[in-house]
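This part of the workshop introduces the protein records we will be handling. A record pairs a protein's sequence with a compact description of its fold. As an example, a complete record with its sequence and its structure tokens follows.

_____
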Amino acid sequence: MTNAKELEIQLIRKNVSKKALAQALGISEMALFNKLNGASEFKASEINKATNFLRLTRDERDVIFFAS
């Protein structure tokens, strides 16, 4: 399950819009919205792209995308 709140905190810290993140992931803003709200899951390739785009550490990535 994705920790959407932590992802949004990282977006603010990095001064990145949700639109820019969606574009970096190659998905629509609606698809990103669905992923943030738990209606769908991030694919492994999207997690990798987001990690690189936001320059997340492994710990940050794990807190966001591999929350229990």
User: Anything to note?
Assistant: Residues 44-54 form the longest helix (11 residues).
